[in-house]
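Re: How this chain folds, sequence and tokenised backbone to follow
How to read it: Take the token row as a discrete description of the fold.
Start of record: The labelled sequence and token lines come straight after this line.
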Amino acid sequence: MKTSFDVFNGDADGICALLQLRLATPKDSVLITGVKRDIALLKQVDPAVAQDVTVLDVAMEKNRAALDNLLSQGVRVFYADHHNPGEVPDHASLTTHINTAANTCTSLIVDKLLDGRYREWALVGAYGDNMIATADTLANKSGLCDQDRIKLMQFGTYLNYNGYGSSLSDLLFAPAEIYRLMAAYPSPFNFIAERPDVYATLEDGFVGDSEKAAAIMPYSERAGSRVFMLPDEAWARRISGVYSNDLTNRDPEVANAVITAKADGNYLVSIRAPLKNRVGADELAAAFPTGGGRKAAAGINALPAELLNDFIDAFHQRYPLDT
């Protein structure tokens, strides 16, 4: 018997994009997700049993071979994303909604498709993906008061924080688990009110890990760019991406790179372009093995130790103060 698959990034954007879709169109599906940086997910779908596949917030370029295989075997694929897709195949069984603009994300793409039907979940995803200005504008248009807007921003930040780690064991909640916990709620406010235990776990973890990160001094600093080095510990892996966003939001003219040591001797890298010049992060990351991402925010999953100094030099050169 054929079945449906939902393949989604384990961060706030991927989870909230799927929440909106399944609230609008319920479907009994197999969930495939993982930690935020685990994006080669489509290969986990078995074309022999797949009837249709929904893919959200997962870069097509990194999954092209698996996508081609599914399409060649008659599987229908719906693909919504905001990462650089590479060459998009022209196939009758493929429906795409891809927008790589620096001020959008997959949750906002889905929000537009659904005419804002589950706008509050879209805002959680957008805030979590650090689309602060865009989300604020949309929240104001939706008539949300400042208190509610801030609550959605906090929830998005906590949810995004939960997605970072080298493995599921680093996370407070597995992405599939927290998606299932939230799936029955048409609004994040309903979820926060009825599951304060889950919300408190996310909030307490975020606050504790943030306090540890705040004590870290820059590892390398030049006019226009800063590099921070975090230790090989679970709290550091969890906070790395959200910490990168926070650094960027605090000083919109400065680029930031947060480098986290890994047990195998390699490094995990989060790159954030300045808010006032949200370009170049994807190209910089792609110049190194296992690198990729978006124009404003990108990363390297396993930077070899021998390339650490090369990356730091390239990062500083890419983001001088006058960019």
Observations:
- The first helix runs from residue 12 to 24.
- The mean pLDDT is 95.
- The two ends are 55 Å apart (CA to CA).
- The longest strand covers residues 50-56.
